[in-house]
Amino acid sequence: xxxxxxxxxSIALFILWVALSHQVFSQENQPYAKExxxxxxxxxxxxxxxxxxxxxxxPDEKVMAIMGKVxxxxxxxxxxxxxxxxxxxxxxxxxxxxxxxxxxxxxTVLAGVNEQSRVLELGTGSGxxxxxxxxxxxxxxxxxIIAPLADSASERLARLGYDNVTVRHGDGYYGWKERAPFxxxxxxxxxxxIPPSLVDQLxxxxxxxxxxxxxxxxxxxxxxxxxxxxxxRVRQILPVRFVPLTGEH
Amino acid sequence: MTADRDFSRLGTLLPVALIxxxxxxxxxxxxxxxxxxxxxxxxxMVISIALLxxxxxxxxxxxxxxxxxxxxDAAFRINAALFSVTSVASFSLAQRLEFNPLELAWSxxxxxxxxxxxxxxxxxxLFAANAVGLxxxxxxxxxxxxYAWDLVGAGxxxxxxxxxxxxxxxxxxxxxxxxxxxxxxxMIGARRPLAGLxxxxxxxxxIVALFVLFLGQPVRLRVSQFKALEQALQVAxxxxxxxxxxxxxxxSVVENTTIPLRHAPGLxxxxxxxxxxxxxxxxDGDGPAAINQFEGSRxxxxxxxxxxxxxxxxxxxxxAALVVGLNGGTGVLQALYYGAAEIDVIEINPQVVEIVxxxxxxxSGRILExxxxxxxxxxxxxxxxxxxxxxxxxxVGLSGSLVASGSGLKAISANHLYTVEGVRALFELLKPGxxxxxxxxxxxxxxxxxxxxxxxxSALKAAGVREPDRQLAWIRSFNTSTLVVKNGAIGPGxxxxxxAFASARGFxxxxxxxxxxxxxxxxxxxxxxxxxxxxxxxxxxxxxDFIQRYKFDIRPASDDRPYFSNYFKPAYxxxxxxxxxxxxxxxxxxxxLVVWATFxxxxxxxxxxxxxxxxxxxxxxxxxxxxxxxxxxALAYFISVGLGFIFIEITLIEKFLLFLNxxxxxxxxxxxxxxxxAGLGSQFVMRRSGQPVxxxxxxxxxxxxxxxGVYLEFLPRLSGTLVMLSDELSVSSALLLVAPLAFFMGMxxxxxxxxxxxxxxxxxxxxxxxxxxxxxxxxxxxxxxAASYGGSLVILIGLALYLVAGVLGSMAxxxxx
Lengths: 249, 817
Known about the structure:
The structure holds two protein chains of two kinds. Chain A is an alpha/beta fold. Chain A is 35% helix and 24% strand. Chain A has helices at 2-29, 33-50, 61-67, 101-111, 128-134, 147-159, 197-200; strands at 90-93, 96-98, 118-122, 139-144, 165-169, 182-187, 202-214, 217-228, 231-237. By secondary structure, chain B is an alpha/beta fold. In chain B, helix 10 (330-337) links the parallel strand 5 (320-324) and strand 6 (342-347).
């Protein structure tokens, strides 16, 4: 009996060891794994500093695991690969940027999505935010107004196996009626105002997240919550630690 | 050194004037080109590069001047020709680097690119300065005449290039300094220089005509891909329909029927109004401002009632309105939407009016040709001071783009409308019961609207209002704020109207008379009611204390410190910079940082350039102690004169902005005036070579201090009268005011150079360099001091520096005659 238990335990341990070593082995084999985990540490550091400003929200474990998994270096140009995992925004051509990883993580958490969610993104850019969302939700619909960016993002997401993302080139101002309603809408393109028609395509209880500022300096994240059919609440979140605004004498 | 070489007057002096004219026109042109391809704050970098070129030239001539001097004509010719070639080539190279200032705080690579641009652009300035410096060195005994022609050439160049920009695009105009340089090269030492000039002019004219006709521009501008215009052009279906150039700005209009522009800053999230078809107007690639399609039906533009900027119409229905800034015509259309009986529009740029009225006349419903609309092409502050009309509503709309304002790229630009005196002047245009309204982009952490509120309180107090709290109201969306200042108390009925307007559109009241704290921060929620708390604090007795403790500079701007968009408090610099990697990028006012960076760069490079020749010239301690002391005094003298000159020059330009109708004319007129009259002063003093050097230095110094002191006291009072004058009269009075000061400011430098030529001619290029370096540092330092402490202090320091120079000069040239 004890021999059997021992044998089973040994076999179980062996299986666990194989699984873990495979995990470690495959981690080691994944390019930039170390850089990615360092990037996640950077995001967590910044998160803890700004926790009060972002409303005491915890850094969602799932989102952080995804940030540690999505190959960001695939979403930047060859000349920027060395910076791919730095916690900073990067230019991707055509006057657009790939957001700072911390902002991507924060926007994903603020969107409040789960495995069943259907999400609309306006401003595909390189497709990185869409890839992060794709790991977390059931479907992502993303619209890009710059044709070459839409084409390259579409090809890239398909190549990386993100088959739950649909990329469309065109005008995103009126959302994507055929696919509405959505649990969340992320507007990553700068705008002079929030398109009111997008609220109609949001489910009750759904959220819209919009970064305000230039691609290199996000000043605030605007979170629109649809509380009822005709009720919305707007929150303005500073992703920055700078309080109190009035210093001492 | 051939310090007493004879020279054919015109064959040397005309090329000196030409190369000076070339280098100054190049400097002004570069500032314009950088405003188009990057953002305008690079103007300060250009000034600094130019002057550093002069500093570097001083060092170079000190080390190798003797060799050059032996073959003066050839050396001058080569330097002038190299200026001609590198002026175009360096700019072309600088453009290829694809420098992105928005990335400066993130990446060292951009700092490196900035340095390369700095060095590349230094080259043409170095060659031009070599040419002038050589002339000064070789003809030191006639330093006054060389210096005078140098200044006159520079003055003509400054005024000439502004004129040329009315007819040439900035990129084509790059050929102007290049050709002037070539003309200087071809003419040096010529026996019949005027004939040479005539031939050169004809040849140059043919080259320019051929170039423009067959080859287009000499350089193709590569505009930053992060500027709004470039981004709009990337969108599928975009079409650049109009492009206009003038010395004021490059205007571009983009249309897109595939993916239309929809520009409605701070539009209510609750609205069902649609935005009509729009064309986008960009100024120097920045913006946009919307030109709205209007076919006469009010309903099609009802979105104009769904923005915070519609607030003042709740207090002033169907008003006689003044719209400040045409932009694309949105403010006029909004006034028409609200049934304004009369609409006066002030727009500084005539080409903006032409685009809306002519190019987009039918598209925009010919709104500018309606009976009730009158357009005045003027600067707003000047109009406010001069106008006799009174209005029910004065509306100052949004200008610029969110990105430009958000990145703090406007931090260092003087604006006399958003000062206490400017707001008061607008307030005094109101009829009793009329309202003045401002709409600004809102940023977090809050600063823009808070500073405006503080400015409005001060303006009301200055206008004799005892209870400003009864006359102010303020609402905000997530990205815009609108502030209303009423000429009279806001009654309870009006307060309810404001509240209802805001509530129906999802805007937050920030302040109005009788507002309760619970009403604040409800629709667009922040962690705390920062805006309301700030408004209450500013209206309370602790207002000044609040301003002092706030981490951004929210002191009301004044005419003496007209930098409304500068929010940077040096005391908190370390705290903000430490946050750079922690998401604090939005807090960095980039424009101001670029000026600081330029200052430190200039300081270090100047120190190297001044000290390097000193070690070489010292020759391992050959000089005795007395010589060393005199040399140190001479060094300090040239530095003081350089700093003093530039401090006064820059501040005078800025002071005169107020009553000359446009900043560009102010710069051109004052700069040209100072240089011309300083040139005359230099000629005058050199004719009195029989007098002791000490007195030829001390007398002008006393005159400068005396005249400067009088200006410091009376200029602010005088500007109220000057602003009322016509354009011609105000330009003439500006020149008249500049003349005496500049006349004497032209004397200390050549007198000392001449004295040095008798005493120790080897030091001349080094003095020339030290003077140049002081101007580099001074140009940037003047702006930094003015932004924090006001322009009057800068002039005061300038005058003190001249006094110091007087003392040092009499020490250094004690025995000289």
